Amino acid sequence: MERRPKAERLAAERIGLVAGSGRFPVLFAETARRRGVEVVAVAHLGETDPALERVVSAITWIHPGELDAMIHALQTAGIRRTVMVGGIAKPRLFRELRPDERATRLLARLDKLRDDLVLRALAAEFETEGIAVVESTLYLQEIVPVAGVLGTRAPSEEEWSEIRFGFRAAKVIGQFDIGQSVVVRSGAVIAVEGIEGTDATIRRAGQLANGDIVVVKVCKPTQDTRFDLPAVGPETVRTLAEMRGRALAVEAGRTITLDRSEMIALADAAGIAVVAVAPAEVPT
């Protein structure tokens, strides 16, 4: 009788991790482990960082589209809650998706392949198997910034004007699930993020505008905050510095900042203003 509460407590401290690309899955697993939480991962070949293997208690590698194998791995480990962290590059999905029978049925029920629709459908499929999909920022609230200037340099008045314009523009394109970022210069949208991702968008804009750009990244209006939150990190700032950018703005309370101290140090060294903006600060 005395062992049952302990067993229940240990079982409650276990979580699944459906891992995509980037630094975020590793950061999630590292933080969960420091909190005494056991992480069981399902990782995607060719996308997920192999370093994840070192910080989880178990890992299953699958090809994108192997939905049945994903669910089976979590069920076998007794997982009842999971997070979905990190994306799968959409160009890769178009070229290399290997949907199993279950994934094929799921995709057939959708009339469009927009990110939000696919992720919600995937979460619903998990829930039919008794696995709840919870917010990806679980254990990581400290990496979601509140409104304010994050680095040493505040944006100039001109940069604030660009940021507010870019914020409104990004929210509009977000309604159509096009992307989460826009790049602005002199009151004009130079580039809109497509399936190539933020860093490639910044490079494209920098080449088109010959530098002097402002990047704004926001959460889509219909965003399900359990997954696919906007994320920035050191590589974002390195790319912006390479393209001679002036400022990076993200949405306060709804953006993940990866390795923030390193990111801000890089921004400060490059003279780039980094700021988190609350929607209430941007008049419509």
Can you describe this structure in just a few lines?
This protein has helices at residues 3-12, 24-34, 67-76, 90-96, 101-108, 115-128, 157-174, 198-209, 234-242, 260-270; strands at 14-19, 38-44, 58-62, 81-85, 132-133, 148-149, 181-185, 188-192, 214-217, 231-232, 247-251, 256-257, 273-277. The protein has 284 residues and is of the alpha/beta class. Strand 7 and strand 8 (188-192) form a beta hairpin.
Any overview of this molecule?
The protein is an alpha/beta fold. The chain folds into two domains: 3-133, Rossmann fold (3-Layer(aba) Sandwich), CATH 3.40.50.20; 144-281, Cytidine Deaminase, domain 2, CATH 3.40.140. Helix content is 39%, strand content 19%. It contains ten helices and 13 strands. The protein has helices at 3-12, 24-34, 67-76, 90-96, 101-108, 115-128, 157-174, 198-209, 234-242, 260-270, and strands at 14-19, 38-44, 58-62, 81-85, 132-133, 148-149, 181-185, 188-192, 214-217, 231-232, 247-251, 256-257, 273-277. The chain has a six-stranded mixed sheet with strand order 6-13-11-9-7-8, sandwiched between helices. Strands 3-2-1-4-5 form a five-stranded parallel sheet, sandwiched between helices. A two-stranded parallel sheet has the order 10-12. A hairpin with a 2-residue loop joins β7 (181-185) and β8.
